[in-house]
Amino acid sequence: MTTMIPVSSQLKSLGMITDSRMCFDIHVGAVVRTCNYHTRALRHVRKHLTTETTQTIACSVISSRIDYCNSLLYGAPVAVVEKLQRAQNNVASHMSSEQMCQCQIATKVPSLAACPTVHPVENIAVITHKALSTSVPLYIDELL
C-alpha cells in the first residue's frame, strides 16, 4: 500500500511564505495581520508610554516585520504592496496620542512615514549605494 504525500500550494521558509503564483499576497496578508496585532497591543499601553518610547517599540517590532524580505516584493502587484503601506500608516497614526488623518502622518511621525514601503527595493539600493560610496569593512566590500 502506497501513501500519497499531499502537495501544498504554499511554502514557508525563513518566515517568508511563497505561493505557486509568486505574487506574495499570502505572505503580505500574514505580515499585515501580525502588524495589526502588535499595533493593537501597543495601543493598549500607549497612554503609559512616552512618544519616544512608543516610536522605538513601533520601529523595532512592527517596522522590522514590514521590512523583512521586502526586496523580494520587487515586481509584486501594487495592490499587494499597498497593504504593507496601509499597515505602516496604521502604526504611525496610533503612535500619537491625538487623532490624525492620513495626510498628517508624515508630518507627525516622520520616523515611520519617511520610509514608504511602496517601492521596497529602493531601500536596498540606497543602502548599497552608501556602502559602495563610503569606506566599508572589508567583508561587506567583498560581498558587494
Description:
The structure is a single chain. The chain contains seven helices and two strands; from the N terminus they run ββααααααα. A hairpin with a 2-residue loop joins β1 and β2 (16-19). The chain has one domain. It has helices at residues 25-45, 51-67, 78-95, 105-108, 110-113, 120-133, 138-143, and strands at residues 10-13, 16-19. The longest helix is centred in the first third of the chain and has 21 residues, at 25-45. α1 packs antiparallel against α2, α1 packs parallel to α3 and α2 runs antiparallel to α3 (78-95). Mean pLDDT is 75; it is low at 99-105 and 112-118. It has 144 residues and is mainly α. Strands 1-2 form a two-stranded antiparallel sheet.
The largest pleated sheet is described as: 2 strands, antiparallel
Low-pLDDT runs = 99-105, 112-118
Q: Give the DSSP E fraction (strand runs of 2 or more residues).
A: 5-15%
Helix amount, in percent?
55-70%
* Total domain count: 1
Q: If strands are numbered along the chain, what order do they take across the biggest sheet?
A: 1-2
Structural class: mainly alpha
Total strands: the figure is 2
> In angstroms, what is the radius of gyration?
18 Å
Report the total helices: 7
What string, H for helix and E for strand, traces the elements in order? EEHHHHHHH
